UniProtKB/TrEMBL annotation:
Pfam families: ANT (PF03374), Phage_pRha (PF09669). Residues 125-224 form the Antirepressor protein C-terminal domain. It comes from Companilactobacillus halodurans. One of its GO terms (molecular function) is DNA binding. This is Antirepressor protein C-terminal domain-containing protein.
């Protein structure tokens, strides 16, 4: 009975299929009943009902289904009689009330006491402080449109260029060939690096730099291995509430 009412397009609704299941009716009969209502509320039908299709879990065929809001359900349920029908109607009313309340409050419990309000404020502030380092690092990446050498990125992680390159090698992100670092094939076409050849001491030398996209890609890959930039290693131990610590 937990799925009597769902949220669809930011509105509390139920479906003809769920109504049929709850009231122990044939789905075809429920659809027919909704269709019959269309004649009487032709101008307002679209405000009450929404027609769609669903895939049957067994035969994978597409079938008709109609979603309805509280008013649409109320109109339909007027024709359902009997003690069990009344019981299920009350269940639906309760479910609609809960879902509509959930939508209005954004899914959050509204604090009813000062203690709950302070606890909520503390939790929100802690969440904001926890997210700050990550936001700051992404701001840093997105603000830089220029190419970046490995040494600079390595410093973000508190490493030397050699240690950082070795780490990327260990994680199968890049490999070294002829003194030059190359990305493995799965990352080659991601636009992560930009290579150019320059003459240094009279010899051609390939220089590889990381793009903005590459830095974000590295961040996500390293994050998956619990390796984060130094800025995210900040230990936040104090939460400020109302100007007091």
């Amino acid at each position: 009975m937990d799925d009597l009412v769902i949220m669809k397009d930011q509105q509390a609704v139920t479906s003809s299929l769920q109504v049929a299941k709850t009231f122990n009716k044939n789905h075809r009969d429920v659809l027919r009943a909704v269709d019959d209502l269309k004649e009487g509320v032709a101008q307002n039908w679209a405000d009450l009902f929404y027609e769609d299709t669903y895939t049957h879990p067994q035969n994978k065929q597409q079938y008709r289904i109609i979603y309805m809001n509280r008013d649409g359900f109320t109109l339909l349920a007027m024709g359902f009689t009997g003690k069990k029908a009344i019981k299920f109607k009350l269940k639906y009313i309760e479910a609609f009330n809960k879902m509509e309340s959930h939508i209005k409050t954004g899914g959050f419990k509204v604090p009813s006491t000062m203690a709950e309000a302070l606890r909520l404020a503390a939790d929100q502030q802690e969440q904001i402080e926890t997210m700050k380092p990550k936001a700051n690092y992404f701001d840093k990446i997105m603000a830089s449109k220029s190419l970046m050498i490995t040494t600079t990125i390595a410093k973000d992680y508190g490493m030397s260029a050699k240690a950082f390159n070795d780490l990327l090698k260990k994680l199968k992100i890049q490999y070294k060939l002829g003194g030059i670092w190359y990305l493995y094939s799965k990352y080659q076409d991601n636009g992560w690096v930009s290579s150019s050849t320059r003459m240094i001491d009279g010899k051609p030398r390939t220089l590889t730099k990381w793009t903005q996209k590459g830095r974000v890609g590295l961040y996500n890959l390293l994050k998956a291995h619990d390796i984060v930039p130094m800025i995210e290693k900040l230990d936040i131990t104090t939460v400020t509430i109302g100007g007091q610590q």
